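SUBJECT: protein chain
CONTENTS: sequence, structure tokens:
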Amino acid sequence: HACEAGMDMGIVNAAHCIEDKYENIDKELLKYVEDVLLNRRADSTERMLEFAATLDPKSKPCALKRLNGEVPKFEATPRQNPIKENLIAPPKKVSAVPKYMDWTDHLPMSDTYDILEKIMKERIIVIDGAMGTSIQKYKSLKEEDFRGEQWKNHTHDLKGNNDLLVVTRPDVIGEIHGGMLEGGADIIETNTFNGTTISQADYELQDLKHVNLINTEGAKLAKRVCAEWTAKTPDKPRFVAGAIGPTNRTLSVSPSVENPAYRNCTYDEVVQAYIEQAEGLYAGGVDLFLVETIFDSLNAKAAMYALDLFFEKVGKRIPVFISGTIVDNSGRTLSGQTNEAFWNSIKHAKPIAIGLNCALGAKDMIPYIENLSKCSDCFVFCYPNAGLPNAMGGYDQKGGEMAEECRPFAARGLINGIGGCCGTTNEHIKCLHDMVSEYKPRKKHDVEPLMRISGLEPLNYKPDEKNMRSTFLNVGERCNVAGSSIYKKAIVDGNYDKALQIALKQVEQGAHVIDINMDDGLIDAVSAMTKFVNLLVAEPEASRVPFMIDSSKFHVVEAGLKCSQGKCIVNSISLKEGEEEFIRRAKIVKRHGAAVVVMAFDETGQAATCDDKVSMCQRAYKVLVEKVGFDPQDIVFDPNILTVGTGMVEHNNYAVDFINATREIKRVCPGCKISGGVSNIAFSFRGNEPVRRAFHSAFLYHACEAGM
């Protein structure tokens, strides 16, 4: 009934949800269940209890057995319904759908946005080639060149730390920049790929004064060279991209085979390192940021989180390009995500362009750029390697050959920008520039408004409005310490292998999303959440689906989000502690890129009636859409599934109220979704398996019709 009303998803036993089809439930059992569920009789609970007492409590609702082992032989006979009115029928008259104001970002955008937008609509822009490859051509560079006067007496060898050359040999880096611009590049990257405290720690240069100097001087140098070339041809502006590499750490993969939950760096440390790098690059005058060579989406999410905090700090936004790396022909990042799942994970940052670089040559990269071009609504670019490396690790592909391999990107209208990665020099850039000048750029397009979440794989939820039950998302409840005593015992005992098997079994049995909850007095929830999610992301068969990070304690929610490379669903926030705190938490969830479950709760308490559920959810929706800028597709309301059949008259209409509220909330809050903890509905029949499962199935049938 909930699905009939339009319910989208719910925390359920996935196996039972799939097995217990409404149409196959024993018809006599269903009559008793629906009498309670839909409040059709004053004595429905008493009658249900009497009938339940005759049933084998371990039988199934679609294969019912009596206590004596007999299967009931039921022949339907007309029964007078004391309440003739259909309590869940859609109303004949409804008010107009409210109009909501568009959210306006209070941070202004730099002038570079409009300039880049105009150019990338007119022609395919060109990004420079590989800085490392170009530096290798300067065979005479020695240890002293990397030390200079600045690090003359440094305790560690510095040769190979190419970022230092912006300080010690600016003539070399300036010459490389100039060669790329001469070849036709519109955008040159700062020589700051490893310009974070984390990466510079390999050379004992993690002190912020060193890192800040590298980034500031790298940006200033690139800006000077760009200014010189733009002065020569003012009709062709050049841009400096602050190069932000992935660091030498991965937040989703353990460096220890023996301990897959271990990480040698925390999310907060990576965020801080990226903020510090952004500060130096911005002080040096970069026009945009390029977050590149992303092999772990969680590192990219940390970078986006950091940049959003940085923009708030400086009071302005500058354009951001994001480039992922597909490590082989599996089409996945090193941390296992497909490129569409990667896009779902970072699209909340609203980059001006998304692309791929490194690892592959152009020929192998084509299908993945084609997929990005289809699924993303921003500009698309790529800068592949000069073919594949030879036996010595070098690259043999010349500029003309590479340009021909890259031609399909332009000829098929897949890109707005192109450049070169490993093995490419100014010669390659010149050939790419000449080749793409023959073609028009890809046209940006809108994508269908859907809730797009991800694990290792994308989950783009497209409800079937005519049959909501068929597209219902099963959120597995068994990794919730309140939903499974077996799981709780495993966590309390520290038996995480068993906990992982529970998660894996849920996915095998049909869970589309895994709910993870550690709220229990016997458990250190932050520690348990962190460890379990870290372990779970290392199990590809389980982590291919998105996670629902579930806790009544918001700091526990944050702990889970900081371990999840996919786009999660947060469960939950509410207006219980007031609008100011609600907005604060919603902004953090948005910054992490997660969808959010909002409970029908406000300062006065929990919503029980249909009217209260609708008014609370509509108020929250208005705040999220107008004040936070939340995508309506990522807003999931839980209007509180409360228990029926308790024997208390005031509880009799709870299911009816939920179903009717579901329909109305979805009407007055366009784009939102409806979820709920389905097992709540039949708590009063715990222990009687066929009755409880029949309640779940019948409830879902009507709630999904209403919009759940």
The two ends are 9 Å apart (CA to CA). The first helix runs from residue 14 to 19. The CA atoms of residues 526 and 559 lie 6 Å apart. Confidence is low (pLDDT under 50) at residues 74-82.
